[in-house]
């Protein structure tokens, strides 16, 4: 594949692979969110509502099974027999654990010591072997490489892989089909697998759409890679553990450079403001990573024009229930003038 860009044809093929096993998630909408956007930015969005791609209702509670299933399905029989290994703070771990169970492949997942207990339990429930290691995801990656070599496992990257990106592209195809007149799509960024697939699929189908990425201020590997024109390893720090990639990828950096219009950085309070808004006004439970795109919009961080039809990707709902009170207390004040009905 030239220039490390995954072509649209690979995404349409991936949809055939994953379509019978993952959900075609609903496109929700919120007038309360549209009102909040207008209160903050003065912009009136199309239909007086914000559209919300509900990937938090996907299998395992996030978008990750789309890419994981397509990747595992692409492996040769000998590779499947050897078993796979991956790393994740939680959602990619669950995605691969679920995909392995679906296809009969053994899965080892290396997770940081601070991984959300419910995400660890879910991976175990899907039959994966869990190795907890590292104070941050960088140390976790180092342990993964050691186990890969020691046990002869096949490394399946959580985000920087053409089959993973193609699987996530199925989500972008759904957005383009469900909202063919969409003007703006907002997507959270960790390592960039999700936005790479979504932006490629949407822009190849609808070239005039503007795609914006959202990163935490303390977990901005993609922004740094774009600025320096090289992949830089970081130690991510953010309440949004699902966006805590230690580096961008070769494939994801290429896709973001080609298809993404801009990236905005959010502090933790704003991300948690999105989480609180989803719970109070839209009646949806999101994890911090899953609320980042919503937070960016309702706090006026995404450049919009009057009449724009806008879609935010709600990427995950695997919130640590023991920390919900802390998250709500730490959230930025909700935008004023937003009505209670969703």
Q: TL;DR?
A:
With 342 residues, the chain is α/β, with parallel strands linked by helices. Helix content is 46%, strand content 13%.
Can you tell me about this structure?
This protein starts with 7 loop residues before the first helix and ends in a 12-residue tail after the last helix. It has two domains: 2-62 and 162-330, Rossmann fold (3-Layer(aba) Sandwich), CATH 3.40.50.1100; 64-155, Rossmann fold. Helices cover 46% and strands 13% of the residues. The protein has 342 residues and is an alpha/beta fold. The strands form two sheets. The protein has a six-stranded mixed β-sheet with strand order 1-2-10-7-8-9, sandwiched between helices. A four-stranded parallel β-sheet has the order 5-4-3-6. The chain has helices at 8-18, 31-41, 64-74, 77-82, 91-103, 117-125, 137-151, 162-178, 193-205, 221-228, 250-259, 268-282, 288-298, 324-330, and strands at residues 27-30, 50-54, 84-87, 107-111, 129-132, 154-155, 184-188, 210-216, 262-266, 310-314. Helix 9 (193-205) links the parallel strand 7 and strand 8. Helix 1 crosses helix 8 (162-178), helix 3 crosses helix 8 (162-178) and helix 5 runs parallel beside helix 6 (117-125). The protein is built from 14 helices and ten strands. The mean pLDDT is 94.
- Annotation, overall tally of beta strands: 10
Query: How much beta, percentage-wise?
Result: 5-15%
The computed structural class is alpha/beta
Helix content: 40-55%
Counting structural domains, the number is: 2
Q: Count of helices?
A: 14
Low-confidence stretches: none
Any guess at the CATH architecture of the largest domain? 3-Layer(aba) Sandwich
CATH level 3 topology of the largest domain: Rossmann fold
Oligomer designation: single chain
Radius of gyration, taken over Cα atoms and rounded to an integer in Å:
19 Å
């Amino acid at each position: 594949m030239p220039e490390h860009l995954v072509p649209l044809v690979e995404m349409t093929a991936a949809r055939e692979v994953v379509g019978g096993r993952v959900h075609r998630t609903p496109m929700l909408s919120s007038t309360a969110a549209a009102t909040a956007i207008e209160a903050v930015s003065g912009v009136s969005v199309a239909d007086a509502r914000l559209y919300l791609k509900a990937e938090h209702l996907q299998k395992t509670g996030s978008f990750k099974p789309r890419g994981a299933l397509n990747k595992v399905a692409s492996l040769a029989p000998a590779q499947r027999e050897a078993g796979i290994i991956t790393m994740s703070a939680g959602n990619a771990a669950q995605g691969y654990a679920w995909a392995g169970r679906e296809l009969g492949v053994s899965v080892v997942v290396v997770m940081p010591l601070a991984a959300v207990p419910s995400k660890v339990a879910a991976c175990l429930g899907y039959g994966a072997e869990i190795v907890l290691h590292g104070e941050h995801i960088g140390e976790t990656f180092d342990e993964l490489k050691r186990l890969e070599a020691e046990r002869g496992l096949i490394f399946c990257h959580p985000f920087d892989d053409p089959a993973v990106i193609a699987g996530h592209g199925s989500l972008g195809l759904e957005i383009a089909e469900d909202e063919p007149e969409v003007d703006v799509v907002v997507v959270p960024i960790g390592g960039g697998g999700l936005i790479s697939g979504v932006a490629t699929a949407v822009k190849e189908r609808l070239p005039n759409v503007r795609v914006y990425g959202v990163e935490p201020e303390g977990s901005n590997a993609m922004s740094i890679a774009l600025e320096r024109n090289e992949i830089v390893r970081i130690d991510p720090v953010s309440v949004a553990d699902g966006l805590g990639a230690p580096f961008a990828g070769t494939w994801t950096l290429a896709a973001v450079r080609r298809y993404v219009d801009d990236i905005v950085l959010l502090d933790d309070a704003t991300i948690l403001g999105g989480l609180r808004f989803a719970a109070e006004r839209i009646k949806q439970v999101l994890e911090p990573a899953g609320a980042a795109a919503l937070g960016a919009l309702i706090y006026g961080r995404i450049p919009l024009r009057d009449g724009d039809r806008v879609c935010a990707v709600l990427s995950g709902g695997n919130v640590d229930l023991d920390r919900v009170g802390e998250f709500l207390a730490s959230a930025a004040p909700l935008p004023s003038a937003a009505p209670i009905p969703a």
